[in-house]
Structure formats: C-alpha cells, structure tokens
Amino acid sequence: MPPSSKRSTLLGLLADWSNSTRSELLVLGAFPYAVGAAFAGESIPKVAVASLAGVGLHWSTVLVNNLVDRQSDSLHPRKQRLAIVAGRITSRQVIVAILASFVVYLTMLFATAAGWAVFALFMPLAVLQVCVNVFQKHSKWVPTLAMDFLFGVTVAFPVLAYPLAQGWVISTSEVMFALTLVVDAAVLNIIVGNLKDLPWDLEASDATTAISLGVRPDPNRPAALRVTVTYLTLTFCLLIARTGLVSSAVASEGRSPAWTAALIVVSLLGVAMWIRAPRGGSLIPNTRYAYLFVACNFITLFTAALLIDPTATMVAVIAGTVVFAPVSGSLVSRLQRWRPVN
Q1: How far apart are alpha carbons 116 and 102 in whole angstroms?
Q2: What's the pTM?
C-alpha cells in the first residue's frame, strides 16, 4: 500500500473514532472529575488521573449509546454516515472499546479514590449516566425535563463525590459550582441538543423537552424553528439561574465584587448568543454563534473553579480544556477530508 494511502486510511480511522466518541464533548466528561479531585485537595498528578477517569466514562457512555441507537441512526440523513452505523467500525470493535474504556475508568478511579467510594459513589453514577444517555429520548415514565436534569446530575456529581470520599466538609461555593454544572448540562441538552436534531426527533417520534413544549420546524422558512413562549421562558429562566449560581459560587468565596460582575456579564453575553428572531416571528438557532454561547458558559465555569481553588492544577486543567474544546472539532473536520469513501 502506498504511504499516502496508508496515511489516508490511518487519518480516516482516527476521524471515525473521534466522531464515534464525541471528542468535542470530552471536556464535559473530564472537567468535573478534575475539579472534584482539586476540590478534595489532591495533588497535580492525581487530578490528571481523575480527569482520565472522566474520559473513560465518557467514551463508554457515548459508545454504548451509539451501539444501541445504531438501527435508528441508520435512517437519519446525517447520522447514517457515522462509522458505527455505516459499518466502518464493527459491533465487536465497539464492544471491545466499551470494555477497554470502562477498564480505564475503574483503574483511574481506584488510583484516586478509596475502594468504598468507587463502589458506593462512582459505580452507581456510571450506571445511571449510561442509562440516562441511552433512554433520554425514549423514556415513557420520566418527563423529558427531568431526564435533562438527571443528565446534569450525572455530569456534575464527581465535583462533590471526590470531597465526600475524602471526608471533607463541602463548602457553599462548591455546592453552588456543582449546581451551576447541573444547569449547564441540562441547558446544553435543551437548547443545543434538542434544537439540532428536532426535525429528525419528530419524525422518529422521540421525546425531548423542546418537542414537549411545542417547538416545531417553520414550514415557511428552511432551518427555522417556531418556538413557544413556554420554551423561551424555560430556557431564559435556566440561563439566568445559572448566572446567579456561578456568580454566587464566587461571591461566597469572598472574592472581589469585580470578579462576580465579570462572570455575570460573560454569562449574560452567552444568553444573547444562542438565538435570533428574523421577520415573521420565527426563531432560528443562531449556529454562527453557537460555539460562542457554549464558550461563554464554559469560560465562566473555568474561571469560577479557578477562583474557588486557585492552584496550579486548576490552571493546567483549564488551559488544557479551553484549548481542546475548539481544537477537537477542527481536528475532526480536517481529518474527515482524509477518510476513504467506500
């Protein structure tokens, strides 16, 4: 095989696995574990190891979800091109990757937390996170909004689990920070996830908060969405609530009021980024500024974590995650150009 062909095949494989494991969301998996370990007073190496535990669980969760949804995704105009759906990655390879990722998760946990905490705190969390991701749009008994917040709880729980495992007294600022992360994860689902896949979710009879609150495609405007007052009220209330929580987390640490004011401004800037109203009353997701909306939320989270626990560890984690978030998406899109077309 010519070197250029080998390179193309290798990059294509890397792009397939990057897409299949949602590399752009790795920060959402690693960050809470790193923050939790830092709040528990762990050393720099242990914080890094804890973040790897979050990566392992993220990989396992996403791969299980992709494997379960493989048949329904084959009917989706965008998802049918994914490697697992198209068969470029086999079911056997996915299962091996799930097991390997879960081994990484357990290994990193045992290296950073006591055995009792692994089985009493983190293992139930892992099972719950997998179940929420798999059944999030298919649950007939749990309301969609409750599922969104349950997802937020599974994301944020490590922030408090590590201090609990160490027997530390959890401060008010740490509780406020964890609640901010719960709301952020729920908002990410309700705004970004729900609206991005809304036409397909409607066709597949899936249940989401946006659908249950009456959001529908605008028949008169391509890509536009007609939203209800209830949906707008909910999303804006959640965004204002997370602004209050993240600013309270910093204020309760006794930081300068200037820091609190700066976090409020950046958080409210994110509120203005996610949607715009064209003529005719329709609302359309502002995809041009979608990354800025998410970035504003993450920047306030990173800054609050740094102000609560100002250590070199947090600086390293924040720098790494801030850099990785935009780079990962760009990397995947660039690598896609090299994927061989079957």
Answers
A1: 18
A2: 0.84
